[in-house]
Amino acid sequence: MDFKLSENTTMIADTARRYLKDNYSFDIYRSQLQEADHLHAARWQAMLELGWFGLPFPESCGGYGGNLVDVAAIVRETGAALCLDPFVDLVVSPGKLLEYINTSESLAILEDVIAGQARVACGLYDRYAGYQVTKPSLRLNGYRLSGQKHVVPDGGCAKRILVSAMAGDELLILALPVEQCQIERYRLLDGSRASSLMLDDLEITDAMILCRGEVARQALSGWFDYMCALDCARMYGAASQVFDDTLEYARTRKQFGTAIGSFQVIQHYLVDMFIDLQQLESMLLMVLVKAESETVSERVRATAAAKAYYASQAVRIAQQGIQIHGGVGVTEELNIGHYFRLITHCSLSHGSRDHHVSRFIEADAAV
Amino acid sequence: MNLEFSDEELAFRDTIRQWMKANVPDDLRRCTARGAMPGKEMQQRWERLLGEQGWLTVTWPEQYGGPGWTATQRYIFDLERASAGAPPTSPFGVAMVGPVLYTFGSPEQKDRWLPGIRSGEMLWCQGYSEPNAGSDLASLKTRAERHDDHYLVNGQKIWTTQAHWADMMFCLVRTDSTVKQQQGISFLLIDMKTPGIEVRPIYSIDGHHHLNEVYFTDVKVPVENLVGTEGMGWTIAKFLLTHERTTIAGVADTQNEINRLKAALATMAENYDKHQAARRVAALEIDLMALEYTNFRTVAATDEGKPFGPESSGLKIKGTELQQSVSQAMVELGELLSLPWDNEQPIGNEVFNRASRRYNFLRACTIYGGSNEIQKNVLAKMLLGL
Ligand SMILES: Cc1cc2nc3c(=O)[nH]c(=O)nc-3n(C[C@H](O)[C@H](O)[C@H](O)COP(=O)(O)OP(=O)(O)OC[C@H]3O[C@@H](n4cnc5c(N)ncnc54)[C@H](O)[C@@H]3O)c2cc1C
Q: Could you tell me where the beta strands, DSSP code E, fall in chain A?
């Protein structure tokens, strides 16, 4: 086995880290939190120029042929930097779905995404189906679409939403223009922007339908695993930052005339966090390789395990980070509480721990 | 052994239940049902209502206007209050400075301050913590220098809950820096409208303003606002730590949270794995039961006039851990529904819609009032002799 990252991946990670250090900050994050539109023109252009938009996609689709390990190298850094620029929501997530759909219509939209010309988001969940991605509650009757999509991460500015729906027993994926939908916008736990779509007999044209049936099912299943792995990467970036900052705080914060890091209980907490972080990294490396596997059961087993593990252990690190910081850990002014929100968010998006434990059991039974 | 309430206690419970049903204001009930915390007006309106009934200061001795209830009755009252959807009362006046005043205060101080606390008219805040004196409270630096008929206070407090609501602060200050740390601390009552006081908000990670920094620049405090004698502040602060333990575990409110969660789960869509969720909730309820019976033991011992036994030592630690676990379960079981932060229209059940804010805020409950690490240090020393 070989766990070394390629030179290319290391370079991508270094570049991302440097870029974010120079162009993003906790202050920028906090002011972005207050904004309804998360697309910042100059940074968007910079990310495009860094090649991030093409990286996740094969050369045959006009991308640069990076794998999940490469993309995760960026997402880890955006997690560590609390960056709210909707790179995943408006590029990676819709782009991967379009790539997996693999029709001429979908690839045409993907081309625009890679060129930074499109504002497309994925609306694949609703409150009735939860995270069961292939059982949407949206219904297509003839050419009329009705129902709702919830928690659509859209950067506050998507122009088109890729939605899943059922026409009778058949699964479909459609691309809906936002201006034809009734929409409610809000902020999410991690500070990102999202919306709910309320569709009431929306008239659909053939051109909006991207794919059906088995193609749609496979595209969604591949997309779901890919997104689960990216959730882990983002949590890893955040959790490792929590650890670094908390260790530093324990060294410098003094009570009773000495650094709190000299108290044994705090030492044990930090050692636990460190060990857990190593385990999280192992899980991350595992899932990044396996989430793109051709074998569905292997893919599902890996992403379910990783998400379930992260949902308990990464969350635990964030909680301990707050506890060791004391009062200042629960304030908006310090980053620690924001990492806690980000990690909690990612531990639920694309399925909670319970959801993934169930998937894991099913995947095991299927082998 | 007898683990049931007596007939009198059951009759008492019914009286309280009926009163709560008729008197908890609808807006307050709705606020709690949403998982939100009431604002100043709503909270104070409720506390005044209790005050009129003589039920705000249920822990106080009769001679100071308490209702003369047993610990069991107080416990029942708390259960009924929570299950009627009313929030806990603010602790600073009723549970903290009130007992200090009737225990250590002069007759004038009692006459002057106790009535406003009893009626809910006067709101208090607790000025203990400072930026560099959190767990190590005895290292506090806010100075009070004696000048004729007043003290001149200079320094800074932090994490002061509800300082922006309060009329008065009870405050630990350093009056002598030449003696051992603990011996140079005094207990002062400070009118929040005094010139030289500046209150600055701190937003916590639930997105709300509960906490403050309070700055003192040459703040004049009359000497008659000193409680006890100079240097007695530490003794008074320690007295408060061992006061009233019968509701410290928060059993009533945690039970209410579990009930809210169960009701919300019943509304989940068909696809949702209710069985799995029920197992998680059951585990929490079982933990709560253990805490509840430990709490009953403390209550019963109190009614027999016994000092707190070892069984009461874990009430705060276990109670706060459980509050956190319940709030975490609420967020996690809500899945998708827990993710929106500021949407107007809840997606699905409103219980989940606010659950993440509450979960965020409750990370603090193992930190405030003496962190759980500090609690354990104290127990190791006092209880186990380590
Ligand atoms: C929501 C909230 C409301 C509050 N309300 C008030 C209020 O109204 N009035 C008021 O005066 N204060 C209030 N506080 C302050 C609270 O009492 C302090 O936050 C608390 O005492 C801890 O102090 P600190 O934050 O400075 O943390 P620190 O003391 O710096 O502690 C940091 C970490 O080190 C640990 N630690 C410290 N010493 C030891 C040790 N000896 N052994 C092992 N571990 C140790 C702590 O447990 C903690 O995990 C509030 C705090 C919060 C979060």
A: 120-123, 139-141, 144-153, 160-167, 170-177, 182-187, 193-203, 209-212, 254-255, 258-259
In tens, the pLDDT along A269-320 reads: 999 999 999 999 999 999 999 999 999 999 999 999 999 999 999 999 999 9
Residue A223 structural domain:
215-366
In this structure, the answer to whether residues A322 and A219 fall within a common structural domain is: yes
- As a whole-number percent, the residues of chain A with pLDDT over 90 amount to 98
Atom of ligand 1 nearest to the CA of B132: 26
Q: What is the pLDDT of residue B247?
A: 78
All domains of chain B, ordered by start, with CATH?
7-89 (no CATH), 124-231 (2.40.110.10), 244-382 (1.20.140.10)
Could you give the angle at the alpha carbon of B238 between the alpha carbons of B48 and B317, nearest 5°? 80
Q: Which entry of B244, B257, B292, B350 is annotated as an active-site residue? A: B244
> In this complex, is the C-beta atom of A166 within 8 Å of any C-beta atom belonging to chain B?
no
Q: Is B244 a catalytic residue?
A: yes
Q: How far is the CA of B370 from the centre of ligand 1 (A)?
A: 6
- State whether A189 and A226 are in the same domain: no
pLDDT for position B39? 96
Question: How many angstroms separate the CA atoms of A233 and A79, rounded?
Answer: 8
- Does residue A237 belong to any structural domain of this protein? yes
Mutate which of A247, A266, A273 to test ligand 1's pocket (most atoms within 8 Å of Cβ)?
A266
> Which residue bears the tokens 């999202």?
A194
ipTM of the complex: 0.96
